[in-house]
Design a protein that fits this description.
Blueprint lengths: L1 E2 L3 H10 L1 H5 L5 E4 L6 H5 L5 E4 L4 H11 L4 E3 L5 E2 L4 H9 L5 E2 L3 E3 L4 H17 L9 E3 H7 L9 H12 L9 E3 L2 H6 L1 H16 L4 H16 L3
Parallel strand pairs: 1-2, 2-3, 7-9
Antiparallel strand pairs: 4-8, 5-9, 6-8
Helix pairs in contact: 10-11
Length: about 230
C-alpha cells in the first residue's frame, strides 16, 4: 500500500485489512515522505512501514522487495478489498505464475458511477489493462521477473499490465473492490472522467508520462482531486 499524507484515511484502510492479517497475510505500507503523521498511524495496523523514495512506482517496488508472500496485491489507500480477497486471489492464480485485477465499484450513490463502473470493467476485459484502483495482484516471482513497476511519473500500473499481458493473460475474481469516488465528486464527474480517458488515450498514442503527470497535477490544482 503506497501512501503519501494519508493520515485521514490510513487508519480505516488498514482496519479493513485486519481480518487478512489475522489469517496470516502480510500488510506493508510504503510511505513516500508524508508530513502529516501517516507512518505513525500506519504502524498501528501494518506489519511493516517503509520509508521509500517518493513516487508510487518506487514505493510499490520497495514494498514488493521486502514482501514474503507468494502473491502481491497492490492496494491504494482509498480502495477496499472484498472480505475474502485472499481466497479470491488464490483461486484466480491457482498454481501458475499469473496476475490479474478486480472489478471495481465506486463508493458514491450517483447513477453515473454505475455507468463508469461498467465502462471500467468493459475496458479492462477488452484491453487486458487494469489501473491501480482495481487492486492489481501478481505472483511475486512473475512480478520480479517482469522487472516490477517502471520508474515513471504516471500510469505505472498501465505500463506494468502491458508487459505482463505479453507473458500471460490476466484473470479477474468475481468480487469487486470498492474505490472511493472522491476524485469524481471533487472535480466533477464528467470533467474527471474526461481527464482520465484523455490521459490514457494520450499515453496510448505515445505521450511521455512525465508530461502527462505535469498536466494532471495542473488539473489537480483546478479541482480534479488527487492521484
Amino acid at each position: 500500500m503506497p501512501s503519501l499524507n494519508e493520515a485521514e484515511g490510513i487508519g480505516a484502510a488498514l482496519e479493513a485489512l485486519r481480518p487478512l492479517r489475522e489469517r496470516g497475510h502480510e500488510v506493508i505500507v510504503s510511505d513516500g515522505g508524508s508530513t502529516d503523521g501517516t507512518p505513525r498511524l500506519a504502524a498501528r495496523g501494518a506489519d511493516r512501514v517503509l520509508a521509500a523514495a517518493r513516487g508510487r512506482a518506487r514505493q510499490m517496488n520497495a514494498g514488493a522487495e521486502v514482501a514474503t508472500g507468494r502473491a502481491l496485491v497492490f492496494l491504494h489507500v482509498d480502495t477496499t478489498l472484498p472480505p475474502e480477497a485472499d481466497r479470491a486471489v488464490s483461486e484466480a492464480l491457482g498454481d501458475r505464475p499469473g496476475w490479474g485485477s478486480f472489478g471495481v465499484r465506486l463508493s458514491g450513490p450517483h447513477p453515473a458511477f454505475r455507468v463508469i463502473e461498467r465502462m471500467i470493467s468493459l475496458r479492462s476485459r477488452l484491453s487486458g489493462i487494469a489501473t491501480g484502483d482495481q487492486a492489481i495482484f501478481v505472483a511475486r516471482d512473475l512480478f520480479l521477473a517482469a522487472g516490477g513497476f517502471a520508474d515513471i511519473a504516471l500510469l505505472e500500473d498501465v505500463e506494468l499490465c502491458r508487459r505482463l499481458r505479453r507473458i500471460v493473460r490476466p484473470v479477474r475474481p468475481r468480487e469487486p473492490v470498492v474505490t472511493s469516488s472522491r476524485r469524481w465528486e471533487a472535480g466533477g464527474i464528467a470533467r474527471t472522467t474526461a481527464l482520465m480517458w484523455w490521459i490514457r488515450g494520450a499515453y496510448a498514442l505515445g505521450a511521455e508520462p512525465e508530461r502527462l503527470a505535469r498536466h494532471y497535477r495542473f488539473r489537480e490544482g483546478s479541482g480534479c482531486g488527487s492521484r
